Amino acid sequence: MSPFRLLTVIKKEFLHIRRDPIYLTLLLILPSFILILYGYALNFDVKHLPLAVVDYDQSQYSRQVVEKVTASEYFDLKYNLKDSREIDPLLNLDLIRLAIVIPVDFSRTILAGRTPEIQIIIDGSNSSSASTGLGYLNAILQQYTIGLNLSFMERAGLSGESLPLENRSRVWYNPELKSSKFLVPGLMAFILMIIIVLATSLSIVREKEKGTMEQLLLSPLRPPELILGKIIPYLILSLIGAHLVLLTGWLLFGVAIKGNYFLLLLILLLFLFCGLSQGLLISAVANSQQVAFMMAGLSTLLPTFVLSGFVFPIQNMPHLIQLVTYIIPARYFLVGLRSIILKGVGIKAFYADVLFLMSYALIMSLISWRRLSQSLSR
Amino acid sequence: MESAVIVENLTRKFGHFVAVDHISFSIPRGQVFGFLGANGAGKSTTIRMLCGLLKPTSGQAIVAGYDIYHQSEEIKKVIGYMSQKFSLYRDLKVKENLEFFARVYGLDNKKFKSRVAELEEKIGLSGKEELITGKLPVGWRQRLALACAILHQPEIIFLDEPTGGVDPLARRQFWDLIYDLSSEGKTIFVTTHYLDEAEYCQEIKIMHAGRIIAEGSPAQIKKRYFPEKLFELVTAEPLRIYNWLKEQPEIEQISLFGKKLHLLISSDQVKQIQERWNGLGIGRFDLRPIVPTLEDVFIRRLEEAGGEKGK
Question: d(Cα B190, Cα B182) in Å, to the nearest integer?
Answer without folding.
Answer: 12
